[in-house]
Design goal:
alpha+beta, about 15% strand
């Protein structure tokens, strides 16, 4: 394991634990670092909205984002079971689980994934979502990496709940709803930029994110400005 990347990851995650941090960018950082640190091919994050319904909030690539959406739309899959039970769900061979998740298991194979490890994002008895780690090939996950994966999920959970003690009934819901609204803007901007520049959705997201970071701006604000064409964005828009 890359110890320097591990140390930098926790520093980066801790740097985001502030009152006005960008939740979408934070969760994308989490999924990217999971792929970089753990023996997994892709990662996704599902979070519950104010009504308790799970939403796809981040994914390390477009393929896993679509698979997570498929899981939610069909109410069928290990990540849903993880959220509902608050316990990890580890599946070493998804192809052998068609009886358990008939739609998801087949779609996962078509999407290029053979194994999944779903970890609860939980603080004591409260479960706010799930961190989902996918491998292309079936087989066991590294048992030594499991505590680190759960630690990353725990850090993300703490960041979501850090202000809740002051406003127990409203802060998390407001923050998650704001993030959901931002997610819609970002998806729209991704599509518009991809079409305009003739690139795929993943490259479009990377361009938006890089611009936001290099200009010290929130990703959602850049997305809104691009969609509305309300200001020049040199370097992003020719």
């Amino acid at each position: 394991m890359n110890q320097q990347l591990l140390a930098r990851t926790f520093v980066e995650l801790a740097d985001n634990l502030v009152a006005d941090f960008d939740l979408i960018d934070f969760l994308r950082l989490l999924t990217d670092r999971c792929v970089g640190l753990l023996d997994v091919s892709a990662a996704g994050v599902l979070l519950a909205d104010r009504d308790g319904e799970l939403r796809v909030m981040a994914a390390s690539d477009e393929e896993v984002r679509l698979l997570e959406l498929f899981q939610l739309q069909n109410d069928d899959g290990p990540c849903l079971d993880c959220f509902r039970t608050g316990a990890p769900v580890i599946v070493t061979d998804l192809a052998a689980e068609t009886a358990r998740w008939p739609r998801f298991a087949v779609q996962a194979g078509l999407s290029g994934f053979g194994a999944v490890q779903a970890l609860p994002m939980r603080l004591r008895d409260e479960v706010v979502g799930a961190l989902n780690l996918f491998r292309a090939s079936p087989g066991p996950f590294d048992p030594a990496a499991a505590p680190l994966a759960q630690a990353l999920a725990d850090v993300a959970t703490i960041s979501l709940l850090q202000q809740r003690s002051a406003h127990r009934n409203t802060v998390l819901n407001e923050q998650l709803q704001s993030a959901l609204n931002s997610r819609v803007l970002i998806e729209q901007a991704k599509g518009k930029l991809a079409e305009r520049q003739g690139i795929d959705m993943e490259r479009a997201f990377t361009a938006l994110r890089s611009y936001a970071r290099s200009h010290n701006r929130r990703l959602s604000d850049v997305a809104r400005a691009f969609i509305d064409n309300s200001e020049p964005l040199p370097g992003l828009v020719p």
